[in-house]
């Protein structure tokens, strides 16, 4: 399969040696990863609420509680640096943030390690398929031409990158659904048009295929 | 190709397989045949997928991109497609959303790394 490798396959440049932590091969992994972040945030929020109970003033507890809710960016700007209780709260928040980041990095590293172990135990055919999965991509020039022919104006490079990426995920969803259909009907790959059409019908029912051709009339 | 008749009523935008120089409506050359074959193999299909299946997928992808582009043009800054619009449209779909975020982050990192590399070269 030497030719398909050259034709229209893009190398995710940094991806070969150290697979980037967050390019999950399957849906559950992606969903799990996005689910992990709010979980970690929830855990640290609970930690925040539990700690002030250990012999601190109610003022610190109120501050910590408030700070824990707006946790996203580094919100460590105590209004008056003279108040020692505020300083203590700020330091605590900083530590919590650092812990959260460390925990997240550790989770990423775990994931990287697991992926490496998995890939190292692939058979020849599986390795081939995995390489095709990672390396195949839409040609940026063609996508850019297509988008520009629709908009009539030029588009930035990031738009092309985003659109190519989303399209690849879209192809993956359709192919996976079609493989499910194929298996359910007791047939074997390669996929036939009837599997693809049934897959598209199912995805449309789930709302995963954008269709702006019919306007919904809500009230008559 | 007999399956053209099956495909055409299914695909609302009548894009038939190109090949003829008829200049008929919607006769477009296949844009992504090779890449789509690699992709289908990567996602689990056979090593040689059927051409008809690849054609259906290509039509689907082109329709998808067209829909997204039209939607992106209608929100945010009208008449232009910007990354923020795409991210907004994708927000409900966890897979695509995560993928776009990763791609853009990686792109930034690569740009930074290349810039630093070039500056290092220039210095030495």
From TrEMBL, chain B:
<dbReference type="InterPro" id="IPR003195">
    <property type="entry name" value="TFIID_TAF13"/>
</dbReference>
<keyword id="KW-0539">Nucleus</keyword>
<dbReference type="GO" id="GO:0046982">
    <property type="term" value="F:protein heterodimerization activity"/>
</dbReference>
<dbReference type="GO" id="GO:0005730">
    <property type="term" value="C:nucleolus"/>
</dbReference>
<keyword id="KW-0804">Transcription</keyword>
<comment type="similarity">
    <text>Belongs to the TAF13 family.</text>
</comment>
<dbReference type="GO" id="GO:0017025">
    <property type="term" value="F:TBP-class protein binding"/>
</dbReference>
<dbReference type="Pfam" id="PF02269">
    <property type="entry name" value="TFIID-18kDa"/>
</dbReference>
<dbReference type="InterPro" id="IPR009072">
    <property type="entry name" value="Histone-fold"/>
</dbReference>
<keyword id="KW-0805">Transcription regulation</keyword>
<dbReference type="GO" id="GO:0042789">
    <property type="term" value="P:mRNA transcription by RNA polymerase II"/>
</dbReference>
<comment type="function">
    <text>The TFIID basal transcription factor complex plays a major role in the initiation of RNA polymerase II (Pol II)-dependent transcription. TFIID recognizes and binds promoters via its subunit TBP, a TATA-box-binding protein, and promotes assembly of the pre-initiation complex (PIC). The TFIID complex consists of TBP and TBP-associated factors (TAFs), including TAF1, TAF2, TAF3, TAF4, TAF5, TAF6, TAF7, TAF8, TAF9, TAF10, TAF11, TAF12 and TAF13. TAF13, together with TAF11 and TBP, play key roles during promoter binding by the TFIID and TFIIA transcription factor complexes.</text>
</comment>
<comment type="subunit">
    <text>Component of the TFIID basal transcription factor complex, composed of TATA-box-binding protein TBP, and a number of TBP-associated factors (TAFs), including TAF1, TAF2, TAF3, TAF4, TAF5, TAF6, TAF7, TAF8, TAF9, TAF10, TAF11, TAF12 and TAF13. Interacts with TBP, and more strongly with TAF10 and TAF11.</text>
</comment>
<feature type="region of interest" description="Disordered">
    <location>
        <begin position="1"/>
        <end position="27"/>
    </location>
</feature>
<protein>
    <recommendedName>
        <fullName>Transcription initiation factor TFIID subunit 13</fullName>
    </recommendedName>
</protein>
<dbReference type="GO" id="GO:0060261">
    <property type="term" value="P:positive regulation of transcription initiation by RNA polymerase II"/>
</dbReference>
<feature type="compositionally biased region" description="Acidic residues">
    <location>
        <begin position="1"/>
        <end position="16"/>
    </location>
</feature>
<dbReference type="GO" id="GO:0005669">
    <property type="term" value="C:transcription factor TFIID complex"/>
</dbReference>
<dbReference type="GO" id="GO:0051123">
    <property type="term" value="P:RNA polymerase II preinitiation complex assembly"/>
</dbReference>
């Amino acid at each position: 399969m030497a030719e398909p490798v050259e034709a229209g396959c893009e190398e995710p440049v940094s991806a070969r040696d150290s697979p980037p932590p967050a390019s999950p091969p399957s849906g559950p992994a992606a969903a799990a990863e996005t689910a992990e972040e709010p979980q970690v945030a929830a855990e640290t929020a609970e930690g925040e609420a539990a700690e002030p109970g250990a012999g601190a003033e109610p003022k610190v507890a109120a501050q910590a509680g408030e700070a824990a809710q707006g946790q996203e960016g580094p919100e460590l700007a105590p209004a008056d640096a003279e108040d020692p209780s505020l300083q203590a709260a700020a330091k605590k928040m900083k530590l919590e943030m650092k812990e959260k980041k460390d925990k997240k990095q550790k989770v990423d590293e775990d994931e990287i390690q697991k992926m490496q172990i998995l890939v190292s135990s692939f058979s020849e055919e599986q390795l081939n398929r995995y390489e095709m999965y990672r390396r195949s991509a839409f040609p940026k020039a063609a996508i850019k031409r297509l988008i520009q022919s629709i908009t009539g104006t030029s588009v930035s490079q990031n738009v092309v990158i985003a659109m190519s990426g989303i399209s690849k995920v879209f192809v993956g969803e359709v192919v996976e659904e079609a493989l499910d259909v194929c298996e359910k009907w007791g047939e074997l790959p390669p996929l036939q048009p009837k599997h693809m059409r049934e897959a598209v019908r199912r995805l449309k029912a789930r709302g995963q295929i954008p269709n702006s051709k019919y306007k919904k009339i809500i009230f008559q | 190709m007999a399956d053209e008749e099956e495909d055409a009523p299914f695909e609302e935008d009548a894009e038939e397989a190109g090949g003829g120089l008829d200049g008929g409506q919607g006769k477009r050359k296949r844009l992504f045949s090779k890449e789509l074959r690699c992709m289908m193999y990567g996602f689990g299909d056979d090593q040689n997928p059927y051409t008809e299946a690849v054609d259906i997928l290509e039509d689907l992808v082109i329709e998808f991109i067209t829909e997204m582009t039209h939607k992106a043009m209608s929100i945010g800054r009208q008449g232009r497609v910007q990354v923020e619009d795409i991210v907004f449209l994708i927000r409900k779909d966890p897979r695509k959303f995560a993928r776009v975020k990763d791609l853009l982050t990686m792109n930034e990192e690569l740009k930074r790394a290349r810039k630093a590399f070039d500056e290092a070269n220039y210095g030495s």
